[in-house]
Design goal:
five-stranded parallel sheet, Rossmann fold, single chain, 9 helices, 2 domains, 14% strand, 54% helix, 7 strands, two-stranded antiparallel ribbon, alpha/beta, 196 residues
């Protein structure tokens, strides 16, 4: 089973690209979705976060906006959060791999926004970076609800520059040329991996 890391900076089209891989029969482990599950009402992370950041709990779930404020206020808070969230995500990932193997998948996708930043690239066979020009990225991100220039800059500051990600990638998918073009690139990567 080939493990393909899928990454890209915010607003580059990674989620849409992950769906394209899924449409081609490649199971996708979405790290962000795993975190959302942990943060949801009665999620596994709720009791721990309640103990550290009690004001970040609303109706039994984690309010990501309040939690985000704590992270931006003190970078040490992020380290504390990651120290217990990463192992929980690891458990969900292990269960995903077990299921994918049982289902006979030949290629699985690890959709991880901070793949390089967290050293996750060491645990995958190949890496795909999703990219688009800076102006396309900015337009996409600024159109998101609740997005501000300050928040955009803060998110980018935690991410490796796009040019560096592309340099480290085994494959690069350009998402500014329309969906058919991106879909074609996904298909080429799958074909290439199945040949090897």
């Amino acid at each position: 089973m080939i493990t393909l890391g899928l990454t890209g900076s915010i607003g580059m089209g990674k989620t849409t690209t992950a769906q394209m891989f899924e449409e081609q029969g490649c199971p996708v482990f979405d790290a962000d979705a795993a975190v959302h599950r942990l943060y949801d009402k009665d999620g596994k992370a709720v009791p721990l976060i309640r103990a550290v950041f009690p004001d970040a709990i609303k109706d039994g779930a984690i309010d990501r906006a309040v939690l985000g404020q704590h992270m931006r206020k003190d970078p040490l808070n992020l380290k504390v959060l990651e120290s217990f969230i990463h192992p929980m995500v690891g458990e969900l990932r292990a269960a995903f791999f077990e299921q994918a193997k049982a289902d006979g998948a030949d290629i699985v996708i690890m959709d991880v926004p901070l793949l390089f930043e967290t050293g996750g690239d060491a645990y995958v066979d190949k890496v795909v970076v999703v990219t688009a020009p800076v102006e396309v990225q900015r337009t996409r991100v600024m159109a998101r609800p609740g997005m501000s220039e300050e928040l955009f800059r803060s998110l980018l500051s935690r991410q490796m520059p796009d040019a560096e990600k592309r340099k480290r990638a085994d494959y690069v998918i350009f998402t500014d040329k329309g969906l058919p073009f991106a879909r074609e690139q996904v298909q080429k990567i799958i074909t290439d991996l199945r040949k090897s």
